[in-house]
Write a structure and sequence with these properties.
The complex is a heterodimer of chains A (311) and B (256). Chain A is an alpha/beta fold. Chain A is 36% helix and 31% strand. Chain A is built from eleven helices and 14 strands. Chain A is elongated, with a radius of gyration of 25 Å. The two termini of chain A are 32 Å apart. In chain B, 38% of the residues are buried. Chain B is an all-alpha fold. Chain B has one domain. In chain B, helix 2 packs antiparallel against helix 4 and helix 9 runs antiparallel to helix 12. The two termini of chain B are 29 Å apart. Chains A and B meet through helix 2 and helix 3 of A and helix 1 and helix 6 of B.
């Protein structure tokens, strides 16, 4: 559905996006992740035909973004980062305007507007002028204009920025409901959002694609040692003696709570899961193991690691 | 076509649902009315004087002493005021960010330019139509010839249209409305005064400068003469700047 081949954009001497290549299949929701200024928005602008690429090529919905830009535009919906709508128009007039520009017939405009208004929850502000709406409502009107032509591909640039928690949940629910029928590219730097919505994540940093895979696989791909958190009844010395004798561990740290419980943070060797060995050793030393938790790498950790590794 | 109409209606709605059109039209009418009153007062004075001398009365014509100078004054006022109407056309869309959405909809640059340009030209037409009562008032007490009235309006309108095209171009260049307005005004003023230095340069250059003068091409219309030369001049100016607008949109896309 989306195919980018060595997509490159130069602004003067600065290369904002360098040689980004990826494929997105029909019905996928793909997270587009990266720190600010990484080239996410520029990439989206090239895919939505707003900016022509300096090098490389891209096909969206089967059409080339440069040579067939009108065909691409007719099949996409785009919610830009700064949702700038015409403040002097009412929501109704605005959606009708957009639907006409997207080449929809009069009958389908009315029908589709009706559906989109309910889906985006903007029924109660339908007759109001956009300039008088709150940020949350404007964001939803922005989403409504992207959806109005029932697009095959949807590009969302930070769609939940500026919304309150309830609205965020609603918008995410809406995006999730689009999965399967539509291809969605969701650019964001909110990592839980990616975890929730996307089965695949592209991480872009300094204009380059540094990672591509499902959120879970990313953590594994990033690798690194496993970390355990233990809560143990016993003395510090006894615990230290037990842990020091284990070959599976790289390092450990012990804190003692006022009530005499020891808390240990343990780092295992790369690739190994030392949980069972730790439990067995502690029991053998007569220490009471109260809890043990494996701290998995969150997407944040993976992200930071990938990004800092680059630097 | 429906896309062009949607764009056109959206632009018109912007002009007429905000104070923009009303302010610009009001200011234009204020100065036109002032100029009309002034010319009519002077014509009255002349009429009283020539009553003593019937021979001179033959040379006195309401067309030459009131209407022609009125159209000439209108064109100067338009030069001052049309940049205010056109400077926002593209610059505002870029500054606010709505251009990013507009240029990812399946509409050609040409229809966007056409929608905006024709809407501004419509406001211009409304502006000129509002001066109709002056002529009606004149017709109550005198008999102005219909020919020069029509050709005069045509001339001022054509000149205005070429200004609007110029304004569209400068607005398409960047995101600053102020720069767009200043450039339109400067360029218009230059075309207005370009003939001034004609007497002091070599005859060849003088002829070129004279042909470029936006005012010289208006003179004929005020007298009731519709010359192809003048029509072609304004049509070319308009076409040139509309073409440049399209190039400007393209170049902004490549540069930004």
């Amino acid at each position: 559905m989306i195919e980018a081949n060595g997509l490159t954009k130069r602004f003067g001497a600065r290369e904002a996006v360098s040689g980004v290549s990826f494929r997105v299949e029909v019905g996928e929701i793909v997270g587009f992740l990266g720190p600010n200024g990484a080239g996410k928005t520029t990439t989206l602008r090239m895919l939505t035909t707003y900016l022509p690429p300096t090098g490389g090529s891209a096909r969206v919905a089967g059409f080339d973004v440069e040579s067939d830009s009108m065909a691409v535009r007719a099949r996409i919906g785009y919610l830009p980062e700064s949702v700038a709508l015409y403040r002097d128009l009412t929501v109704r007039a605005y959606l009708d305007f957009v639907a006409t520009l997207k080449g929809m017939s009069c009958a389908s405009r009315t029908r589709r507007a009706d559906e989109v208004v309910d889906a985006c929850g903007i029924r109660e502000v339908y007759a109001r002028r956009i300039g008088t709406l709150s940020r949350g409502y404007r964001q939803r009107v922005g989403l409504a204009q992207a959806l109005i032509n029932d697009p095959e591909v949807l590009f969302l640039d930070e769609p939940t920025v500026g919304l309150d928690p309830k609205q965020i949940v609603e918008i995410r629910e809406l995006i999730r409901s689009l999965a399967g029928r539509r291809t969605v590219i969701l650019s964001t730097h909110i990592l839980p959002e990616v975890n929730l919505l996307c089965r695949r994540v592209l991480i872009i940093h300094r204009g380059r694609l540094v990672s591509d895979g499902p959120p879970r696989e990313l953590a594994a791909h990033a690798g690194g040692p496993s970390r355990l958190e233990l809560e143990v009844r016993g003395t510090r010395d006894a615990l230290a003696a037990a842990l020091a004798g284990m070959a599976e561990l790289l390092s450990y740290e012990i804190d003692v709570d006022p009530d005499g419980t020891c808390r240990a943070r343990v780092v295992g060797r790369d690739g190994a899961d030392p949980r069972e060995a730790v439990a067995e050793t502690l029991v053998r030393h007569g220490l009471g193991l109260r809890s043990m938790a494996l701290r998995t790498m969150s997407l944040e950790d993976v992200f930071l690691q990938l990004v800092t590794r680059e630097e | 076509m429906s896309k062009f109409l949607a764009l056109y209606r959206r632009e018109l709605a912007y002009y007429f649902q905000s104070p923009v059109a009303y302010t610009v039209v009001a200011v234009f009418l204020l100065f036109c009315g002032y100029s009309f009153y002034n010319l009519l007062g002077y014509f009255n004075l002349l009429s009283i004087q020539v009553m003593q001398n019937p021979l001179q009365a033959r040379n006195l014509s309401i067309t030459a002493s009131v209407l022609a100078p009125l159209f000439s004054n209108m064109s100067t006022i338009l030069l001052l005021i049309l940049p205010l109407l056109t400077m926002r056309l593209f610059a505002e869309e870029r500054r606010s960010g709505s251009a990013e959405l507009l240029f990812t909809y399946p509409v050609s640059d040409a229809s966007v330019i056409a929608g905006k340009f024709v809407a501004a030209v419509t406001v211009l037409a409304v502006m000129l139509a509002m001066t109709g009562p002056y002529v009606a008032l004149l017709a109550l007490f005198a008999a102005p010839e219909p020919g020069p009235v029509i050709s005069g309006y045509l001339g001022v309108w054509l000149m205005g249209v070429s200004f609007v095209a110029m304004g569209t171009f400068f607005s398409a260049l960047g995101e600053s409305q102020l720069v767009a307005g200043a450039m339109t005004f400067g360029c218009g003023l230059l075309l207005l005064v370009i003939g001034w230095i004609a007497p002091f340069v070599s005859p060849g250059v003088a002829a070129v400068l004279d042909e470029l003068s936006i005012i010289r091409h208006l003179e004929g219309f005020g007298r009731g003469v519709v010359d192809t030369n003048d029509l072609v001049f304004y049509a070319n100016l308009t076409a040139l700047f509309l073409f440049l607008s399209a190039r400007a949109l393209d170049s902004v896309r490549w540069r930004s």
